[in-house]
Amino acid sequence: MSLRDLFLNITYALFPPACLLCNSMIQSRTKEVFCPGCRERLVFIGGHICPSCGRNFPDSPSTGHVCGHCIEKPPCFSMARAALSYESLILEAIHRFKYGRNPVFGAALASFLSTVEFPDVDWKTYDLIIPVPLHIRKLRQRGFNQSLILARGLSKTHRIPVNFSLLKRRKLTLTQTGLDKKQREKNVKNAFIVRQQDRIEGKNIILVDDVYTTGATTNECARMLIRAGAGRVAVIVLASVPVVH
Length: 245
Ligand SMILES: [Zn+2]
Ligand SMILES: [Zn+2]
Known about the structure:
Layout: H1 3-14, H2 36-41, H3 68-72, E1 79-85, H4 88-99, H5 103-115, E2 128-131, H6 136-142, H7 146-158, E3 167-169, H8 181-188, E4 192-194, E5 204-212, H9 216-227, E6 232-240
Parallel strand pairs: 1-6, 2-5, 5-6
Antiparallel strand pairs: 3-4
Helix pairs in contact: 4-5, 5-7
The structure holds zinc ion (2 copies).
């Protein structure tokens, strides 16, 4: 037994992994962060999704068609993909992660996201991972950027460098909660700025955020990155809100 395995076994014996959602013990030594019961209740995205924004159509029987939002205003990113549908269970976990200042939660969600397979994302073709930035004041208040924690998990698994200083949030925006799509777009317009354009030029970028609601924030980030010369921007999020007509 290697020293590393010995260490892992001791850690496992002392701190058996608990489910992120219900705290019950997980009877497996894999990187699983949800117990089988909770995992079953999570709504994984797949099947009927918009190929552009990646959100699922809860009521549409057909596949492969672009949603109304993406037809009306094609996004600047090449595609967005989410692991889960943003429903009560994961909503609570993300809320605890963002506002509970609990680093264990962040690490576990990052580890979960990094094991999710996104079949149409060809990781080898990307050069850089960039998290959606927080405004410095919000960062000080919260103590961490949840998107950066998720981005670091993806970076480790897919071996793509992460950079959190090339894209900056210069405008302290109002909370997006309660705003409609148009108001959200207006709210985040010109909120971001690219530093060191030469490090963005020609690069294919994975942009990471925790939640995709209307896509206003991620789209504005993608717009700035493309304007700075990025080749292609794909968005990866933990959870997205289903398409509503
Ligand atoms: Zn559980
Ligand atoms: Zn769409």
